[in-house]
Amino acid sequence: MEHPVTFAICGCGNRGLEAYASYQSLHPERMRVVAGADSRPERLAMLRQRCGVAEDMCFASAEELLARPRLADVLIVATQDRQHVPHALAALERGYHLLVEKPISPDLKECIRLRDKAHEAGRAVIVCHVLRYTRFYAALEALLRRGDIGKIETIDAVEHVAYWHHAHSFVRGNWRRSDETSPMILAKSCHDMDLLRWLAGERCLKVQSFGSLDYFRPENAPEGAAMRCLEGCACKDNCPYDAEKIYITNPHCGIREVGKIWPLTILNSDPTEENIYEALRTGPYGRCVFHCDNDVVDHQTVNLTFANNIHATFTMTAFTELCRRTVKVTGTLGEVEGDLKENKLLLHRFGMPEQVIDLGNAKSEFAGHGGGDMGLMDNLCALLSGGGTQGLTSIDASVESHVMALAAEASRLAGGETVTLADFEAR
Ligand SMILES: NC(=O)c1ccc[n+]([C@@H]2O[C@H](COP(=O)([O-])OP(=O)(O)OC[C@H]3O[C@@H](n4cnc5c(N)ncnc54)[C@H](O)[C@@H]3O)[C@@H](O)[C@H]2O)c1
Predict the structure, then answer these.
(1) Domain check: are 33 and 73 in the same one?
(2) Within-domain flag for 372
(3) Residue 194 in contact with ligand 1 by CB distance below 6 A
(4) Is the CB of 370 under 6 A from ligand 1?
(5) What's the whole-model pTM score?
(6) 108 and 234 assigned to the same domain
(7) CATH code, domain with 111
(8) Has residue 14 been placed in a domain?
(9) pLDDT tens, 337-376?
(10) Exposed end of the chain (fewer CB within 10 Å): N or C?
(11) Which of 106, 123, 140 finishes a domain?
(12) Is residue 319 in a domain?
Protein backbone atom coordinates (compact mmCIF):
# COMPACT_ATOMS: atom_id res chain seq x y z
CA MET A 1 0.00 0.00 0.00
CA GLU A 2 1.19 3.53 -0.84
CA HIS A 3 2.15 5.55 2.28
CA PRO A 4 1.02 9.17 2.18
CA VAL A 5 3.74 11.81 2.27
CA THR A 6 3.18 13.91 5.40
CA PHE A 7 3.06 17.72 5.24
CA ALA A 8 3.26 20.68 7.59
CA ILE A 9 2.11 24.06 6.24
CA CYS A 10 3.47 27.47 7.22
CA GLY A 11 0.97 30.06 6.00
CA CYS A 12 -2.51 28.57 5.63
CA GLY A 13 -3.76 31.37 3.37
CA ASN A 14 -4.97 31.18 -0.20
CA ARG A 15 -2.02 29.14 -1.46
CA GLY A 16 -1.27 26.99 1.58
CA LEU A 17 -4.84 25.92 2.18
CA GLU A 18 -6.74 26.30 -1.10
CA ALA A 19 -4.04 25.45 -3.65
CA TYR A 20 -2.03 22.73 -1.88
CA ALA A 21 -3.79 21.28 1.20
CA SER A 22 -6.86 20.63 -0.96
CA TYR A 23 -4.84 17.89 -2.72
CA GLN A 24 -5.39 15.72 0.37
CA SER A 25 -9.13 15.49 -0.30
CA LEU A 26 -8.44 14.22 -3.85
CA HIS A 27 -5.57 11.90 -2.92
CA PRO A 28 -5.60 10.94 0.76
CA GLU A 29 -3.39 7.97 -0.16
CA ARG A 30 -0.66 10.37 -1.30
CA MET A 31 -0.88 13.39 1.03
CA ARG A 32 -1.58 13.81 4.72
CA VAL A 33 -1.39 17.23 6.36
CA VAL A 34 -0.35 16.74 9.98
CA ALA A 35 0.56 20.24 11.18
CA GLY A 36 0.11 23.89 10.26
CA ALA A 37 0.86 27.45 11.32
CA ASP A 38 -0.92 30.72 10.66
CA SER A 39 -1.20 33.98 12.54
CA ARG A 40 -4.95 34.10 11.76
CA PRO A 41 -6.90 31.73 14.07
CA GLU A 42 -9.73 31.36 11.51
CA ARG A 43 -7.31 29.87 8.99
CA LEU A 44 -6.15 27.31 11.57
CA ALA A 45 -9.79 26.44 12.26
CA MET A 46 -10.23 25.83 8.52
CA LEU A 47 -7.09 23.66 8.48
CA ARG A 48 -8.44 21.53 11.33
CA GLN A 49 -11.83 21.22 9.71
CA ARG A 50 -10.66 20.51 6.15
CA CYS A 51 -7.60 18.34 6.81
CA GLY A 52 -8.31 16.87 10.23
CA VAL A 53 -5.16 18.35 11.79
CA ALA A 54 -5.07 17.92 15.59
CA GLU A 55 -5.48 21.01 17.76
CA ASP A 56 -2.02 20.59 19.33
CA MET A 57 -0.43 20.49 15.87
CA CYS A 58 -1.74 23.96 14.96
CA PHE A 59 0.59 26.86 15.72
CA ALA A 60 0.11 30.62 15.85
CA SER A 61 3.26 31.30 13.84
CA ALA A 62 5.71 29.57 11.53
CA GLU A 63 8.40 30.35 14.07
CA GLU A 64 6.50 28.37 16.75
CA LEU A 65 6.08 25.38 14.43
CA LEU A 66 9.72 25.51 13.41
CA ALA A 67 10.84 25.54 17.05
CA ARG A 68 9.55 21.95 17.27
CA PRO A 69 11.49 18.93 16.04
CA ARG A 70 10.50 17.88 12.50
CA LEU A 71 6.76 17.09 12.41
CA ALA A 72 6.36 15.89 8.79
CA ASP A 73 8.27 14.85 5.67
CA VAL A 74 7.66 18.14 3.85
CA LEU A 75 7.15 21.72 4.95
CA ILE A 76 5.14 23.97 2.65
CA VAL A 77 6.32 27.58 2.91
CA ALA A 78 3.32 29.64 1.82
CA THR A 79 3.80 32.77 3.90
CA GLN A 80 4.36 36.14 2.23
CA ASP A 81 7.20 36.87 -0.21
CA ARG A 82 9.75 38.28 2.23
CA GLN A 83 9.22 35.53 4.84
CA HIS A 84 10.02 32.53 2.62
CA VAL A 85 13.79 32.25 3.02
CA PRO A 86 13.99 32.63 6.83
CA HIS A 87 11.26 30.00 7.20
CA ALA A 88 12.86 27.73 4.58
CA LEU A 89 16.35 27.93 6.10
CA ALA A 90 15.01 27.07 9.57
CA ALA A 91 13.06 24.16 8.07
CA LEU A 92 16.15 22.75 6.34
CA GLU A 93 17.92 22.83 9.72
CA ARG A 94 15.09 20.66 11.05
CA GLY A 95 15.47 18.20 8.17
CA TYR A 96 12.29 18.91 6.18
CA HIS A 97 11.99 18.61 2.42
CA LEU A 98 10.51 21.87 1.17
CA LEU A 99 7.83 23.15 -1.13
CA VAL A 100 8.50 26.89 -1.30
CA GLU A 101 6.11 29.42 -2.80
CA LYS A 102 7.45 31.69 -5.47
CA PRO A 103 9.06 34.13 -5.39
CA ILE A 104 11.82 32.52 -3.35
CA SER A 105 12.81 36.03 -2.26
CA PRO A 106 13.07 39.50 -3.83
CA ASP A 107 16.68 39.54 -2.59
CA LEU A 108 18.98 37.62 -4.94
CA LYS A 109 21.51 36.90 -2.19
CA GLU A 110 18.77 35.18 -0.16
CA CYS A 111 17.79 33.04 -3.18
CA ILE A 112 21.40 31.93 -3.55
CA ARG A 113 21.73 31.29 0.19
CA LEU A 114 18.74 28.94 0.06
CA ARG A 115 20.12 27.16 -3.01
CA ASP A 116 23.46 26.58 -1.26
CA LYS A 117 21.80 25.41 1.94
CA ALA A 118 19.56 22.99 0.00
CA HIS A 119 22.63 21.38 -1.57
CA GLU A 120 24.35 21.14 1.80
CA ALA A 121 21.28 19.60 3.46
CA GLY A 122 20.61 17.16 0.59
CA ARG A 123 16.87 17.78 0.81
CA ALA A 124 14.36 18.36 -1.99
CA VAL A 125 13.60 22.07 -2.32
CA ILE A 126 10.87 22.50 -4.91
CA VAL A 127 9.66 25.96 -5.93
CA CYS A 128 6.00 26.46 -6.88
CA HIS A 129 6.51 27.30 -10.56
CA VAL A 130 3.21 25.53 -11.12
CA LEU A 131 2.87 26.31 -14.83
CA ARG A 132 5.55 23.78 -15.75
CA TYR A 133 3.15 21.12 -14.46
CA THR A 134 0.27 22.09 -16.77
CA ARG A 135 -0.48 19.89 -19.76
CA PHE A 136 -0.25 22.98 -21.97
CA TYR A 137 3.35 23.95 -21.19
CA ALA A 138 4.47 20.33 -20.73
CA ALA A 139 3.16 19.49 -24.24
CA LEU A 140 4.77 22.61 -25.71
CA GLU A 141 8.13 21.86 -24.11
CA ALA A 142 8.04 18.21 -25.28
CA LEU A 143 7.16 19.32 -28.83
CA LEU A 144 10.07 21.77 -28.89
CA ARG A 145 12.53 19.23 -27.44
CA ARG A 146 11.45 16.68 -30.11
CA GLY A 147 12.41 19.25 -32.73
CA ASP A 148 8.92 19.42 -34.29
CA ILE A 149 9.58 23.00 -35.46
CA GLY A 150 13.32 22.57 -36.05
CA LYS A 151 15.76 24.81 -34.24
CA ILE A 152 13.94 27.38 -32.13
CA GLU A 153 14.64 30.97 -33.17
CA THR A 154 12.15 33.20 -31.31
CA ILE A 155 9.69 33.02 -28.42
CA ASP A 156 7.04 35.69 -27.76
CA ALA A 157 5.07 35.39 -24.55
CA VAL A 158 2.33 37.62 -23.20
CA GLU A 159 0.87 37.65 -19.73
CA HIS A 160 -2.62 39.14 -19.90
CA VAL A 161 -3.15 39.92 -16.22
CA ALA A 162 -6.75 41.22 -16.63
CA TYR A 163 -7.89 44.63 -15.42
CA TRP A 164 -9.86 43.24 -12.45
CA HIS A 165 -7.07 40.89 -11.29
CA HIS A 166 -4.53 43.68 -11.57
CA ALA A 167 -6.73 46.06 -9.58
CA HIS A 168 -7.31 43.36 -6.96
CA SER A 169 -3.74 42.11 -6.39
CA PHE A 170 -1.44 44.86 -7.69
CA VAL A 171 -3.28 48.14 -6.99
CA ARG A 172 -5.44 47.53 -3.92
CA GLY A 173 -4.04 44.24 -2.64
CA ASN A 174 -1.05 42.40 -1.21
CA TRP A 175 1.37 42.87 -4.13
CA ARG A 176 0.81 46.59 -4.74
CA ARG A 177 4.14 47.73 -3.27
CA SER A 178 7.51 46.34 -4.24
CA ASP A 179 9.09 47.32 -0.91
CA GLU A 180 6.55 45.17 1.01
CA THR A 181 6.50 42.13 -1.31
CA SER A 182 8.22 42.09 -4.73
CA PRO A 183 8.39 44.03 -7.99
CA MET A 184 5.74 42.91 -10.50
CA ILE A 185 8.21 41.13 -12.81
CA LEU A 186 9.13 38.87 -9.90
CA ALA A 187 5.78 38.62 -8.09
CA LYS A 188 3.72 37.75 -11.13
CA SER A 189 6.11 37.09 -13.96
CA CYS A 190 8.86 34.93 -12.43
CA HIS A 191 6.61 32.13 -13.74
CA ASP A 192 7.04 33.54 -17.25
CA MET A 193 10.80 33.94 -16.86
CA ASP A 194 10.94 30.34 -15.66
CA LEU A 195 8.88 29.15 -18.65
CA LEU A 196 11.01 31.07 -21.15
CA ARG A 197 14.19 29.54 -19.69
CA TRP A 198 12.62 26.06 -19.77
CA LEU A 199 11.29 26.37 -23.33
CA ALA A 200 14.54 27.87 -24.61
CA GLY A 201 16.49 24.98 -23.09
CA GLU A 202 19.60 27.06 -22.38
CA ARG A 203 20.67 29.81 -20.00
CA CYS A 204 19.55 33.37 -20.53
CA LEU A 205 22.55 35.66 -21.11
CA LYS A 206 21.17 39.21 -21.25
CA VAL A 207 17.94 41.08 -20.63
CA GLN A 208 16.59 44.54 -21.30
CA SER A 209 13.31 45.87 -19.96
CA PHE A 210 10.93 48.85 -20.14
CA GLY A 211 7.75 49.48 -18.20
CA SER A 212 6.00 51.76 -15.75
CA LEU A 213 3.10 52.44 -13.48
CA ASP A 214 1.29 54.58 -16.00
CA TYR A 215 -2.41 54.52 -15.15
CA PHE A 216 -3.21 53.78 -11.50
CA ARG A 217 -1.97 57.13 -10.19
CA PRO A 218 -3.79 60.03 -8.46
CA GLU A 219 -3.35 62.39 -11.45
CA ASN A 220 -5.45 60.01 -13.59
CA ALA A 221 -8.44 60.02 -11.23
CA PRO A 222 -11.45 61.29 -13.16
CA GLU A 223 -13.16 64.47 -11.98
CA GLY A 224 -15.43 63.66 -9.03
CA ALA A 225 -13.75 60.37 -8.06
CA ALA A 226 -14.17 59.59 -4.34
CA MET A 227 -11.43 58.07 -2.20
CA ARG A 228 -13.61 54.95 -1.71
CA CYS A 229 -15.99 53.50 -4.27
CA LEU A 230 -18.92 53.21 -1.83
CA GLU A 231 -18.61 56.81 -0.61
CA GLY A 232 -20.66 58.61 -3.25
CA CYS A 233 -18.20 58.38 -6.14
CA ALA A 234 -19.48 60.44 -9.08
CA CYS A 235 -17.57 58.27 -11.60
CA LYS A 236 -18.88 54.91 -10.44
CA ASP A 237 -21.17 54.14 -13.39
CA ASN A 238 -18.46 54.42 -16.03
CA CYS A 239 -15.53 53.01 -14.07
CA PRO A 240 -14.71 49.33 -14.74
CA TYR A 241 -12.46 49.37 -11.66
CA ASP A 242 -15.35 50.30 -9.33
CA ALA A 243 -14.96 47.92 -6.37
CA GLU A 244 -18.68 47.16 -6.22
CA LYS A 245 -18.62 46.06 -9.86
CA ILE A 246 -15.47 43.96 -9.41
CA TYR A 247 -16.49 42.16 -6.24
CA ILE A 248 -20.28 42.00 -6.58
CA THR A 249 -21.34 41.87 -10.24
CA ASN A 250 -18.26 41.29 -12.44
CA PRO A 251 -18.71 38.10 -14.54
CA HIS A 252 -15.13 36.97 -13.81
CA CYS A 253 -14.98 37.57 -10.08
CA GLY A 254 -18.18 39.08 -8.59
CA ILE A 255 -19.85 37.21 -5.72
CA ARG A 256 -23.18 37.06 -7.57
CA GLU A 257 -21.50 35.38 -10.54
CA VAL A 258 -18.76 33.11 -9.27
CA GLY A 259 -19.62 32.23 -5.67
CA LYS A 260 -17.27 31.88 -2.71
CA ILE A 261 -13.93 31.52 -4.46
CA TRP A 262 -10.74 33.56 -5.01
CA PRO A 263 -10.44 36.56 -5.07
CA LEU A 264 -13.46 36.91 -2.79
CA THR A 265 -11.89 34.65 -0.15
CA ILE A 266 -9.10 37.22 0.18
CA LEU A 267 -11.61 39.86 1.32
CA ASN A 268 -13.18 37.53 3.88
CA SER A 269 -12.67 33.81 4.66
CA ASP A 270 -16.48 33.50 4.52
CA PRO A 271 -17.31 35.73 1.54
CA THR A 272 -21.07 36.21 1.80
CA GLU A 273 -22.41 39.28 -0.04
CA GLU A 274 -22.88 41.01 3.31
CA ASN A 275 -19.26 40.29 4.34
CA ILE A 276 -17.97 41.50 0.97
CA TYR A 277 -19.88 44.80 1.30
CA GLU A 278 -18.43 45.22 4.80
CA ALA A 279 -14.90 44.63 3.43
CA LEU A 280 -15.53 47.20 0.69
CA ARG A 281 -16.76 49.77 3.21
CA THR A 282 -13.86 49.34 5.62
CA GLY A 283 -10.91 47.51 4.05
CA PRO A 284 -8.27 48.09 1.36
CA TYR A 285 -10.31 46.52 -1.44
CA GLY A 286 -12.89 49.33 -1.34
CA ARG A 287 -10.35 52.02 -2.22
CA CYS A 288 -10.40 54.01 -5.45
CA VAL A 289 -7.76 52.52 -7.79
CA PHE A 290 -6.39 56.03 -8.40
CA HIS A 291 -5.95 56.70 -4.69
CA CYS A 292 -4.04 53.69 -3.37
CA ASP A 293 -0.47 53.49 -2.07
CA ASN A 294 0.63 51.24 -4.97
CA ASP A 295 3.92 51.50 -6.83
CA VAL A 296 4.28 48.33 -8.96
CA VAL A 297 4.11 48.68 -12.74
CA ASP A 298 0.92 48.16 -14.74
CA HIS A 299 2.76 47.10 -17.89
CA GLN A 300 6.28 45.91 -18.66
CA THR A 301 8.19 44.41 -21.57
CA VAL A 302 11.40 42.35 -21.52
CA ASN A 303 13.80 41.39 -24.32
CA LEU A 304 15.89 38.32 -23.66
CA THR A 305 18.76 36.56 -25.42
CA PHE A 306 19.73 32.95 -24.67
CA ALA A 307 22.99 31.03 -25.00
CA ASN A 308 21.68 29.05 -28.00
CA ASN A 309 20.95 32.28 -29.92
CA ILE A 310 17.21 32.18 -29.22
CA HIS A 311 15.68 35.63 -28.82
CA ALA A 312 12.53 36.17 -26.79
CA THR A 313 10.12 38.92 -25.87
CA PHE A 314 7.80 39.09 -22.92
CA THR A 315 4.94 41.50 -22.27
CA MET A 316 2.98 41.83 -19.05
CA THR A 317 -0.07 44.07 -19.16
CA ALA A 318 -2.86 44.83 -16.73
CA PHE A 319 -5.11 46.03 -19.52
CA THR A 320 -6.90 42.93 -20.75
CA GLU A 321 -10.38 41.52 -20.21
CA LEU A 322 -9.27 37.95 -19.57
CA CYS A 323 -6.60 36.57 -17.28
CA ARG A 324 -4.54 34.30 -19.56
CA ARG A 325 -1.13 33.58 -21.04
CA THR A 326 -0.31 33.27 -24.72
CA VAL A 327 2.89 32.13 -26.40
CA LYS A 328 4.26 31.82 -29.92
CA VAL A 329 7.48 29.99 -30.82
CA THR A 330 9.06 30.06 -34.27
CA GLY A 331 11.64 27.60 -35.52
CA THR A 332 13.50 26.76 -38.71
CA LEU A 333 10.88 24.15 -39.75
CA GLY A 334 7.65 25.55 -38.35
CA GLU A 335 5.83 27.58 -35.73
CA VAL A 336 3.60 26.81 -32.78
CA GLU A 337 1.32 29.06 -30.78
CA GLY A 338 -1.25 28.71 -28.06
CA ASP A 339 -3.31 30.10 -25.22
CA LEU A 340 -3.16 28.46 -21.80
CA LYS A 341 -6.81 29.31 -21.17
CA GLU A 342 -7.92 27.59 -24.37
CA ASN A 343 -5.55 24.68 -23.60
CA LYS A 344 -4.80 24.24 -27.29
CA LEU A 345 -1.64 24.46 -29.39
CA LEU A 346 -1.65 25.28 -33.10
CA LEU A 347 1.29 23.64 -34.80
CA HIS A 348 2.22 24.69 -38.30
CA ARG A 349 5.04 22.75 -39.92
CA PHE A 350 6.03 24.71 -43.03
CA GLY A 351 4.25 23.51 -46.17
CA MET A 352 1.94 21.20 -44.22
CA PRO A 353 -1.63 21.64 -42.93
CA GLU A 354 -2.03 23.24 -39.50
CA GLN A 355 -2.44 20.76 -36.66
CA VAL A 356 -4.59 21.55 -33.63
CA ILE A 357 -3.32 19.89 -30.46
CA ASP A 358 -6.25 19.91 -28.03
CA LEU A 359 -5.08 19.34 -24.46
CA GLY A 360 -8.55 18.95 -22.95
CA ASN A 361 -10.51 21.13 -20.62
CA ALA A 362 -8.07 22.52 -18.05
CA LYS A 363 -10.90 24.11 -16.09
CA SER A 364 -12.83 20.90 -15.53
CA GLU A 365 -9.85 19.10 -13.94
CA PHE A 366 -8.23 20.95 -11.08
CA ALA A 367 -8.87 24.58 -11.72
CA GLY A 368 -5.79 26.24 -10.20
CA HIS A 369 -3.35 27.55 -12.84
CA GLY A 370 -4.68 25.36 -15.67
CA GLY A 371 -4.16 22.20 -13.61
CA GLY A 372 -0.64 23.24 -12.55
CA ASP A 373 -1.32 23.38 -8.79
CA MET A 374 -2.43 19.77 -8.66
CA GLY A 375 0.19 18.70 -11.23
CA LEU A 376 2.85 20.05 -8.91
CA MET A 377 1.47 18.05 -5.98
CA ASP A 378 1.29 14.85 -8.10
CA ASN A 379 4.91 15.36 -9.08
CA LEU A 380 6.13 16.20 -5.57
CA CYS A 381 4.43 13.21 -3.93
CA ALA A 382 5.81 10.88 -6.63
CA LEU A 383 9.30 12.38 -6.28
CA LEU A 384 9.43 11.94 -2.51
CA SER A 385 7.80 8.50 -2.52
CA GLY A 386 10.58 7.45 -4.90
CA GLY A 387 13.32 8.95 -2.72
CA GLY A 388 14.29 11.68 -5.24
CA THR A 389 15.27 15.27 -4.50
CA GLN A 390 15.57 16.95 -7.94
CA GLY A 391 12.08 17.86 -9.16
CA LEU A 392 11.06 19.68 -12.32
CA THR A 393 11.18 23.00 -10.47
CA SER A 394 14.08 22.35 -8.13
CA ILE A 395 15.82 25.28 -6.49
CA ASP A 396 18.64 25.35 -9.09
CA ALA A 397 16.26 25.84 -12.03
CA SER A 398 14.14 28.31 -10.10
CA VAL A 399 16.97 30.58 -9.02
CA GLU A 400 17.78 31.17 -12.70
CA SER A 401 14.29 32.58 -13.29
CA HIS A 402 14.72 34.88 -10.31
CA VAL A 403 18.05 36.17 -11.64
CA MET A 404 16.30 36.90 -14.96
CA ALA A 405 13.40 38.72 -13.26
CA LEU A 406 15.57 40.76 -10.91
CA ALA A 407 17.95 41.68 -13.74
CA ALA A 408 14.95 42.78 -15.84
CA GLU A 409 13.78 44.98 -12.96
CA ALA A 410 17.29 46.49 -12.66
CA SER A 411 17.21 47.19 -16.40
CA ARG A 412 13.77 48.82 -16.21
CA LEU A 413 14.85 51.03 -13.33
CA ALA A 414 17.94 52.04 -15.34
CA GLY A 415 15.75 53.12 -18.28
CA GLY A 416 16.20 49.94 -20.33
CA GLU A 417 19.95 49.31 -20.01
CA THR A 418 21.09 45.87 -21.17
CA VAL A 419 22.01 43.71 -18.17
CA THR A 420 24.37 40.73 -18.47
CA LEU A 421 23.12 38.03 -16.13
CA ALA A 422 26.50 36.57 -15.17
CA ASP A 423 27.68 40.03 -14.03
CA PHE A 424 24.37 40.70 -12.28
CA GLU A 425 24.50 37.42 -10.33
CA ALA A 426 28.13 37.97 -9.34
CA ARG A 427 27.57 41.51 -7.98
N1 LIG B 1 2.65 29.76 -7.21
C2 LIG B 1 1.81 30.69 -7.57
O3 LIG B 1 1.37 30.74 -8.70
C4 LIG B 1 1.36 31.74 -6.58
C5 LIG B 1 0.14 32.41 -6.76
C6 LIG B 1 -0.23 33.36 -5.82
C7 LIG B 1 0.60 33.65 -4.76
N8 LIG B 1 1.80 33.02 -4.63
C9 LIG B 1 2.70 33.30 -3.50
O10 LIG B 1 2.30 32.50 -2.40
C11 LIG B 1 2.58 33.18 -1.16
C12 LIG B 1 1.31 33.22 -0.32
O13 LIG B 1 0.31 33.92 -1.04
P14 LIG B 1 -1.23 33.83 -0.60
O15 LIG B 1 -2.01 34.38 -1.72
O16 LIG B 1 -1.53 32.48 -0.08
O17 LIG B 1 -1.23 34.89 0.59
P18 LIG B 1 -2.15 34.86 1.88
O19 LIG B 1 -1.98 36.18 2.51
O20 LIG B 1 -3.51 34.37 1.55
O21 LIG B 1 -1.44 33.73 2.80
C22 LIG B 1 -0.31 33.95 3.60
C23 LIG B 1 -0.66 33.44 4.98
O24 LIG B 1 0.49 33.52 5.82
C25 LIG B 1 0.03 33.84 7.13
N26 LIG B 1 1.18 34.33 7.90
C27 LIG B 1 1.78 35.55 7.88
N28 LIG B 1 2.83 35.57 8.73
C29 LIG B 1 2.91 34.34 9.27
C30 LIG B 1 3.80 33.73 10.21
N31 LIG B 1 4.83 34.40 10.74
N32 LIG B 1 3.58 32.45 10.53
C33 LIG B 1 2.55 31.74 10.00
N34 LIG B 1 1.67 32.28 9.12
C35 LIG B 1 1.86 33.55 8.76
C36 LIG B 1 -1.06 34.86 6.90
O37 LIG B 1 -1.93 34.98 7.99
C38 LIG B 1 -1.76 34.27 5.67
O39 LIG B 1 -2.84 33.42 6.02
C40 LIG B 1 3.11 34.56 -1.55
O41 LIG B 1 4.50 34.58 -1.46
C42 LIG B 1 2.67 34.72 -3.00
O43 LIG B 1 3.53 35.56 -3.74
C44 LIG B 1 2.17 32.06 -5.51
Answers:
(1) yes
(2) no
(3) no
(4) no
(5) 0.95
(6) no
(7) 3.40.50.720
(8) yes
(9) 999 999 999 999 999 999 999 998 766 444 578 789 999 9
(10) N
(11) 123
(12) yes
Ligand 1 centre from 204 Cα, in Å?
Answer: 29
371 within domain boundaries: no
Give 308's pLDDT tier (boundaries 50, 70, 90).
very high
Q: Domain check: are 199 and 343 in the same one?
A: yes
Does residue 92 have its Cβ closer than 6 Å to ligand 1?
Answer: no
In the reported structure, the alpha carbon of residue 24 is separated from the centroid of ligand 1 by a whole-number distance in angstroms of 19
Ligand 1 atom nearest residue 128's Cα: 1
Q: Let me know whether 165 and 119 are in one domain.
A: no
Question: What pLDDT, on a 0 to 100 scale, did the predictor assign at position 371?
Answer: 87
Q: CA-to-CA distance for 197 and 397, rounded, in angstroms?
A: 9
The finding on whether 40 has its CB within 6 A of some atom of ligand 1 is: yes
Q: What's the pLDDT score for residue 367?
A: 59
Based on the number of CB atoms within 10 Å of its own CB, is 122 exposed (0-12), middle (13-18) or buried (19 or more)? Answer: exposed
**Distance of CA 120 from the midpoint of ligand 1 (Å):** 27
Ligand 1: which atom is nearest the Cα of residue 81?
A: 41
Contacts of the segment 347-354: beta carbons below 8 A, 24+ positions apart: 347/143, 347/148, 347/149, 349/148, 349/149
Q: Which residues pair with 344 in a beta bridge?
A: 339, 358
> Ligand 1 atom closest to Cα of 84?
41
Last residue of a domain, one of 88, 123, 158: 123
Structure letter (DSSP) for residue 83 = G
Question: Cβ(14) to ligand 1 under 6 A?
Answer: yes
- DSSP 8-state assignment for residue 116: H
Ligand 1, residue 62: give the atom nearest the CA: 32
User: For residue 427, how far is its CA from the centre of ligand 1 (angstroms)?
Assistant: 29
The greatest distance separating any two alpha carbons of the chain, rounded to the nearest whole angstrom, comes to 67
* Number of domains the chain is built from: 3
User: Are 243 and 360 in a shared domain?
Assistant: no
Q: Are 184 and 297 in contact (CB under 8 A)?
A: yes
User: CA 340 to CA 137: how far, in whole Å?
Assistant: 8
Owning domain of residue 358? 132-214+295-364+392-426
Same domain membership, residue 54 and residue 11:
yes
Write the single-letter amino acid at 130. V
For residues 81 and 165, state if they share a domain.
no
CATH number of residue 305's parent domain: 3.30.360.10
Going by the DSSP 8-state scheme, the letter that residue 156 receives in this structure is E
* Separation CA 221–CA 149 (nearest Å): 48
C-alpha 401 – ligand 1 centre gap (Å): 20
Any ligand 1 atom below 6 A from CB of 11:
yes
Residues 5-20 pLDDT 10s? 999 999 999 999 999 9
Do 407 and 329 fall within a single domain? yes
